[in-house]
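Predicting structure from sequence has reshaped protein science. With that in mind, we have picked out one protein's residues alongside their backbone shape tokens:
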Amino acid sequence: MTTTDVHLNATRDNSKFISVFAYARYSDAYGARHLTLFCGRLSASEMDYSRERAFGTTTTECDDYNCADDDCEQYASAPELRWLLAYIR
């Protein structure tokens, strides 16, 4: 996804929200499977992002969907995460 100055200005004005969701699933050297979930919300600084070289954002964690390994089991009832959780089971 490309974030434009219009999106960032709307985020700054709290009329739109940009969320980032990421995951890592991997096996360690001993063959154990691991899962890490991350959810963050992008916050825009007080500036006009349509200006050239305007930058300055931060990310804060979402209230949910931040976990590692067995802690992620708390989201077992979330249908969109079942395929990820199946990886560590």
